[in-house]
Amino acid sequence: MSNLIKLQNGAAAIVAVDGWQIVRLPVGEVEVKKQAGKVVLFKLTGAESATAEQIAATEIPAGKVVLPLSVWLARKAEFAARVAAGEVGVWLETHELVETLVADQPDLNVFPLIAVFIERFADGRAYSTGALLRSRFGFKGELRALGDVLRDQLFFLKRCGFDAFDIRADRSAEDALASLKDFSEPYQGATVIEQPVWRRHARG
Question: The domain spanning residue 122 has which CATH number?
Answer without folding.
Answer: 3.40.50
